[in-house]
Amino acid sequence: MRVNFTVNGRPQEADDVWEGESLLYVLRERMGLPGSKNACEQGECGSCTVRLDGVPVCSCLVAAGQVEGREVTTVEGLADYAEHREQAHPGGGCASGACGVPLQDAQRWQAKGTDSGTGEGGRLSPVQEAFIDAGAVQCGFCTPGLLIAADEMLERNPQPTDADIREALSGNLCRCTGYEKILDAVRLAAARQDRRGLQEGAV
Amino acid sequence: MASTRTTGAPTKITQGSGTKGGIGESTLRPDGTLKVTGEFAYSSDMWHEDMLWGQTLRSTVAHAEIVSIDTSEALAQPGVYAVLTYDDLPAATKKYGLELQDTPVLAHGKVRHHGEPVALVAADHPETARRAAAKIRIEYRELPLVTDEASATAADAVLVHEGRDDEYIKHVPHPNIVHRQPIVRGDAAEAAKRADVVVRGEYTFGMQDQAFLGPESGLAVPAEDGGVDLYVATQWLHSDLEQIAPVLGLPEEKVRMTLSGVGGAFGGREDISMQIHACLLALRTGKPVKIVYNRFESFFGHVHRHPAKLTYEHGATKDGKLTHMKCRIVLDGGAYASASPAVVGNASSLSVGPYVIDDVDIEAVALYTNNPPCGAMRGFGAVQACFAYEAQMDKLAARLGMDPVEFRQLNAMEQGTLLPTGQVVDSPAPVAEILRRVKARPLPPERQWESSEGADVRQLPGGLSNTTHGEGVVRGVGYAVGIKNVGFSEGFDDYSTAKVRMEVINGEPVATVHTAMAEVGQGGVTVHAQIARTELGVTQVTIHPADTQVGSAGSSSASRQTYVTGGAVKNSCELVREQVLELGRRKFGTYHPAWATAELLLEGGKVVTDGGEVLGDLVDVLQGESVEVEAEWRHRPTEPFDLRTGQGNGHVQYSFAAHRAVVEVDTELGLVKVIELAVAQDVGKALNPLSVLGQIQGGTTQGLGVAVMEEIIVDPETAKVKNPSFTDYLIPTILDTPTIPVDVLELADEHAPYGLRGIGEAPTLSSTPAVLAAIRDATGLELNRTPVRPEHLTGTV
């Protein structure tokens, strides 16, 4: 079958998709977007987490056909997604209830390519930067899913408590870090976001 | 400054003060950006034009003769390019293995464990390959099983491997025992007479899985010269190569291996998984073949931590001095040897723990059974022993009415202690001090779940299941300490190779470091760049991808890579530096007398004297030339353990960590919440403090997992694995994992590069027994097995 959907702001079309294929498979094997990871393929580890119309989902549990006509954000598009949100809602967060990126805007942004050899040339979202700075990345296999989940939580809840962070990330397994540095990273991203918001507010 | 030196001689830190990003700084990972953007190419991300997908068909029974295999229906499926069985293997060599070559590439005549590879399929879509594999008809005739020591060593036991001719068969009491290592020192029976108290215990350690998140995977690309290029996630490229080439019937130079992104390892990638299978399919079809295990297959695709039965007897005098120790450790190695012999060596030689006991009688064995094969996992034999001896220490302290930490400190080993193997601990062993540090730390506040809005169930056992608001919840505190060896032991030639080049690129001096070290997440690539900056005074360091075009770097295991490959990088950098200085002397020596007389350093892109005077710019010295050195580096040699007495200088270095666990137990439901796991560890020298914390916290969490949740359940009746999924095999989530405060000591080991100590494994040892001790403290139960499950705490078992 043919499936049409938007990935990181770009309309995409996949042909010859077998009905049993997951969104994860189509992203990784048909669209050249292997950033979403295949650690368990049974919805237990969260490493394939993407946003589907803004909602975090395990892409391994979503049949590709279910995504017809919908919006998907993967780790490859996270930096642009976050930048766009920052422009729409300086300082991030949306305790007021005006959350996320308006659909109209979301349909206009596009992920830009980076140099796949070095990663240079790309910008990073605050959460991505914080994961590097805090030492939250070791093998990195859980990282893409955690980034999507953490970014989505900070969008909803810009000043999370530790218990909030643990609850929001409890569907994402990490085997290397013991989670301490991941907590540090999310706290750091929240603090930086908070600071940026204050600066914006002072202007 | 020594340009060459005897292996293992004390090293002098002559560099590092003047160059940013050198050792001791928490520089960030060079692969960090790629990993957070999704661009980092893991082995399962490999893709090639026209590529096929490989699938393994595995045995559905544990022990059986293969009566027949019919592949015709599978081969007839559209999209299927090849179906291979044992009969298709191209070379005379049809087995491989880390230590014993006992593992068939594909089963021949019989299968010895549940999930053993029997046939391979290549097809144009992974689902086509899976469905075709399901159409291969195999007729099994089941054989009797051996699943534990009693059944494996019975007089009429069926032999897992008939006709053994390996080096171990000569000294084992039964052909279903892979290896046996006794250690006898002093006279335990005589010393027992001095004991005022004697405690005994039988302990059970469950089968733990490495559960790395990146599944076994890789891509094999057939080459025009008849060879193959293999992109794969592994812990040791050259060990793989030695096992792959013979069964492909190819010389090693025709099997070119490149390390792809590795999604964690923890020992589970030390053995071959899909490497040979992908190469066979690629060579047969003439097309690139990718194999990616799913999680179900991953549970069958690698070895696990040996489950163990441990029997211990300790004695002590009234004043708290240990008199003697007797122990017997039985490790279940499963159907193939993997690393079992080395695990036996570790378990026996470290069975005494970090304590001074002069009179010991120790025996460790590994069995061949029809259970899943077991081998390397973080902690490697020392983990199981630590669980048992630490339980014994608590029992002794309780019997003596002593504080469990003070009792341990009274018997703690230190630098100069003679081990049961006769080896002297010749570097710092701050066992008493790390115990003191974890004990001195303030305890987390009680009843943290209480808030003005009622109980925050997220802070309670059972969590969001909302099973208690504090009723029946009891706190417990427990301590443990452990000892782990660093590096490969028992006389193994444990070397690493590093190629380092220095040249000017775009007007800047640049160092390139090329090793075959498997970066599995630990941060070796970060540290290599730091070492190069420190030694060569450059800012720009390029880490060349790891491959087999450079000599072996040994395994990314045994807490050894920073020590040994880090040591090799340091050594090669020193040799490069000497050549660079020689170049400088030739070019500029006549301009300044200090070129000939002073001790010279490379710092901040310049050649400087040890007095700080700048003699020249590296750009000018190197202009138009490059300097390159590839050299092997070795730590001090070790010796095998005597097969009867266990005596010998078997280990290179020791590593120590201590934990204090604070738990809260819902005693009515048997649910445990670990509140805090405090660690103190001596790391010798923290080359990258941030990475050190990551290793300690990660290792601690794996120890927590096997304390309260992680266990592969093997049905004793069928030897089949019952829980091969993350639904049924649980690893700690962020909700299960407590705060892990870390206290790092840096007591230099003068024998090691920069004084460093291998750190990756020690925290996995003491974490488990500390949690168990805390649960015992909370519940008063004896708890002689790990992991602890709710039924063990509620009296229903």
Q: Which structural traits does this protein have?
A:
heterodimer; A: 203 residues; alpha+beta; Ubiquitin-like (UB roll); DNA polymerase, domain 1; 5-stranded mixed beta sheet; globular; B: 797 residues; Aldehyde Oxidoreductase, domain 4; Aldehyde Oxidoreductase, domain 3; 19 helices; 25% helix; disordered N terminus; iron ion binding (chain B); AldOxase/xan_DH_Mopterin-bd_sf (chain B); oxidoreductase activity (chain B); Ald_Oxase/Xan_DH_a/b_sf (chain B)
Notes on the protein architecture:
Chain B: Residues 1-30, 443-468 are annotated as: Disordered. Chain B: One of its GO terms (molecular function) is iron ion binding. Chain B: Residues 1-17 have a biased composition (Polar residues). Chain B: This is Molybdopterin-dependent oxidoreductase. Chain B: Residues 37-144 form the Aldehyde oxidase/xanthine dehydrogenase a/b hammerhead domain. Chain A: InterPro entries: 2Fe-2S-bd, 2Fe-2S-bd_dom_sf, 2Fe-2S_ferredoxin-like_sf, 2Fe-2S_ferredoxin-type, 2Fe2S_fd_BS, Beta-grasp_dom_sf, Diverse_Oxidoreductases. The complex is a heterodimer of chains A (203) and B (797). With 203 residues, chain A is an alpha+beta fold. Chain A has 2 domains: 3-73, Beta-grasp domain (Ubiquitin-like (UB roll)), CATH 3.10.20.30; 77-202, [2Fe-2S]-binding domain (DNA polymerase, domain 1), CATH 1.10.150. Chain A contains 7 helices and 5 strands. In chain A, strand 1 (3-7) and strand 2 (10-14) form a beta hairpin. The longest helix of chain A has 23 residues, at 180-202. The relative contact order of chain A is 0.16. With 797 residues, chain B is α+β, with helices and mostly antiparallel strands. Among the domains of chain B are: 32-40 and 495-634, Aldehyde oxidase/xanthine dehydrogenase, molybdopterin binding domain (Aldehyde Oxidoreductase, domain 4), CATH 3.30.365; 43-143 and 225-262 and 269-293, Aldehyde oxidase/xanthine dehydrogenase, a/b hammerhead (Aldehyde Oxidoreductase, domain 3), CATH 3.90.1170.50; 429-487 and 651-793, Aldehyde Oxidoreductase, domain 4 (2-Layer Sandwich). Chain B has 19 helices and 33 strands. Chain B starts with 31 loop residues before the first helix and ends with a helix. Mean pLDDT of chain B is 96; it is low at 1-17. The interface between A and B is large, with 64 and 64 residues.
